[in-house]
Amino acid sequence: MNSPSRDALLQLAYFAGCAMWTYLNTPFLLAWPGVVSEELSPWTENGESWRRLHVRYPDSIATHSTNQTLYFDQSGIIKRHDYDLEIAGGTPGAHYVDAYVDVSGIRFPTVRRVFARQADASVTREPVVVSIDLSNIQLVPVKR
Q1: pLDDT tens for residues 14-31?
Q2: Domain regions of the chain by residue span
Q3: Is 93 within 8 Å of 108 (Cβ atoms)?
Q4: Is 3 helix (H, G, I), strand (E, B) or coil?
Q5: pTM over the 0.85 mark
Q6: H or E element, residue 24
């Protein structure tokens, strides 16, 4: 088996950095200049009704997908994050977030699972495409 090329490894590192930066900064990114959002019709999943927000990011924000949809539960917590992975030919994904923890008054999801998303926004739960578990989250003040 051939090992990945240097370019493939750099592409993966760039993608992982952009993706994690987007994940950790959402929903704060919604307040950035040039971000456009529009509320969509509600979505029902597993007996829950979630509000949906379509978000379009400007070119000035490096992200893995210009157009994304966020799903919020009744308490305003993000439960799902849909996008078409632009660097992989527009591959549709449904990214579920769960197990929120409080860090200095800000809630962060510690469990993230990405699955294949169908054209009707339904999800195929097998296989798990990406699995991310976060722990020991700390916010460090920036010295200026």
Answers
A1: 888 888 888 889 989 999
A2: 6-133
A3: no
A4: coil
A5: yes
A6: helix 6-25
